[in-house]
Amino acid sequence: MRKLVVHMQVTLDTRISTSTGDFWEPLLFGDAETAYVNEAFRSADTWAMSRKVYDFVVPFWQEVAAGTAPADADAISPPQREFAELLAGLTKIVFSTTAVDDPTTRRRVIAGDLGDQLADLKQRPGRDIVLSAGPRTLGPLADQPGLVDEYLLVIHPAVLTAGPRLFEHLTVDLALDLVHAEVFEAGAIIARYAARWQP
């Protein structure tokens, strides 16, 4: 069966953004970190995400993959270009009640009971599914026994006084097993945890 792997960037106190929805500074995510995360995306064929994540991340990297990135964008490194190419080949499942499907960019929109739909998707043939979403969306999904298989977290050496925390909408406790962790020179830690579900 396919694995559902949550991937998010968080601060040391598990905030996913500032109170205004922006990333903190400095955001320590360079080529080495990108190359590590690319491994997870290389094992996947689908990226499921909230509409906010889609709007923030996907359009820019689709432009990079197409060779039409804005002229004022920073130089694209080889690991970043690989990420763009990986993203272009993924099916993008977007959680939204207003967006529409777009076959040309492999975007498929779903709404309603996301947990049931993702559980059904896991049963179908294919590779891993990466999931990226904020706490209001993630909470009910992480609560559902057996749905999320792993958490791939990029943990930054920063603490914020305000902003949404990744796990703040959970209603059940999670037991996790560390699969692998790596410390990067710039200061971030990338940790991969397997969910330990009790029968």
Q: Residue share in helices?
A: 25-40%
C-alpha termini separation: 18 Å
Largest sheet composition: 8 strands, mixed
Residue runs with pLDDT of under 50 for 5 or more positions: none
- Give helix and strand order, one letter per element, not per position: EHEHHEEHEHEEE
Look at the helices and sheets and give the structural class. Answer: alpha/beta
Major beta sheet, strand line-up: 4-3-2-5-1-6-8-7
Q: How many domain units?
A: 1
| Large-scale geometry | globular
User: Over the alpha carbons, how many angstroms does the gyration radius reach?
Assistant: 16 Å
**Percent range for β-strand residues:** 25-35%
CATH superfamily: Dihydrofolate Reductase, subunit A
Total number of strands:
8
Oligomer kind: single chain
Overall description:
This protein is an alpha/beta fold and 199 residues long. It has a single domain, classed as Dihydrofolate Reductase, subunit A. The protein has 5 helices and 8 strands, in the order βαβααββαβαβββ. Helix 1 packs parallel to helix 3 and helix 2 packs across helix 3. The protein is globular, with a radius of gyration of 16 Å.
